[in-house]
């Protein structure tokens, strides 16, 4: 046997990878599939129809519920962790290297690298981009920090303030890094929801939060950084082949997005593993 099961644990599955460890009182059902080097803590239950990829960690007493009639497979991606006492409902997909905090109830898909907590789960940060990582903390954009991610730039937009109010303006062919051919706005987003979570093969984008605030995470396959967009005179320029995600929308947030190209569904990459493959980076372990 290339994996280990505590004498007080129960593993009924014939599909368990090398180096996996099943602790006392854990139960892996026959219909589960478990990858290599997976760690299942004491009292964990992995139900039928659950697939755990390589290097997944599941804390004590977490429950990954078995499949229900009509439910899709439950999948936990490579390198993800599910905290102690958490519950994952059937049909949910937890992305690569995502982190589920202890006691969380996961009822919807969790994007790659996201950090979630609560009941129901909500995104509170991103791995390697949030304030819990040394030297990679959340950066407030008001100070116009230098981007650490190649292909991402922070721009100051001309602003004028007087007793009559404020104005922000830009000449498309002089002040912006590209001439926009399309714009759209995003607003009315519940604070628990996530927008973006894709990359473009050819299209440049400029994000400007004209009201309220949002958090924007950018990723080029190697580096990741998080910005707070909370000023209408600051824009975040994302070159093609940059993965972008926006979350933590304030109740009044209005996000303006300027795009270099007309809408083209074939220009989108919506799967993070596909994005990593296209930028030539191996998927992180």
Helix proportion range: under 10%
Structural class: mainly beta
CATH topology of the largest domain: Jelly Rolls
Instruction: Tell me the name of the CATH homologous superfamily of the largest domain.
Output: Jelly Rolls
Largest sheet: spatial strand order: 1-3-6-9-12-15-17-18
Low-confidence stretches: 130-141
Number of helical segments?
Answer: 2
The separation of the N and C termini measures: 24 Å
Q: What is the CATH C level class of the largest domain, in words?
A: Mainly Beta
Number of domains: 2
Could you characterize the architecture of this molecule?
This protein is mainly beta and 285 residues long. It has two domains: 1-127, Hexapeptide repeat proteins (UDP N-Acetylglucosamine Acyltransferase, domain 1, 3 Solenoid), CATH 2.160.10.10; 139-278, Jelly Rolls, CATH 2.60.120. The chain has two helices and 31 strands. The strands form six sheets. An eight-stranded mixed sheet has the order 1-3-6-9-12-15-17-18, with no helix packed on it. Strands 2-4-7-10-13-16 form a six-stranded parallel sheet, with no helix packed on it. Strands 19-27-26-29-24-31 form a six-stranded mixed sheet. Strand 26 (214-219) and strand 27 (224-229) form a beta hairpin. 38% of the residues are buried.
Brief characterization of the structure:
By secondary structure, the chain is mainly beta. The chain contains 2 helices and 31 strands. About 40% of the residues are buried.
